[in-house]
Amino acid sequence: MAEEIINMSRKELDHLSIIQRVDRKELSQLNAAQMMGLSARQVRRWLVRYRTHGEQGLISKHRGRLNNNRLADSLRAQHLAFMSF
Asked: What is the full per-residue pLDDT of the chain (85 aa) written as tens digits?
């Protein structure tokens, strides 16, 4: 069986280790929430995602997508042309 490589940020790795401890009942959801700066409800959501999707469930769903506030390419080109004068 081939192993799949998963890219995670340092913050995602830290959250993964905390969620794994909650899953093993070594840490309470409330304590985990305080450690991560989240609500206990969010920790419960992450725990469900971890149990259903594994480590990939904790990776940001926004990764690889463009920013919602990004300027249109045509407007950006106009701005760069204006700034080059």
From this structure: 567 777 888 888 899 999 999 999 999 999 999 999 999 999 999 999 999 999 888 887 777 788 888 878 888 888 888 887 6
69 lies in some domain: no
Phi-psi region of 6 (alpha: psi -120 to 50; beta: other; left: phi over 0): beta
Residue 38 DSSP SS3: coil
Parent domain of 31 = 9-60
Number of folded domains in the chain?
1
Rounded to whole angstroms, the Cα distance separating 65 from 36 reads 24
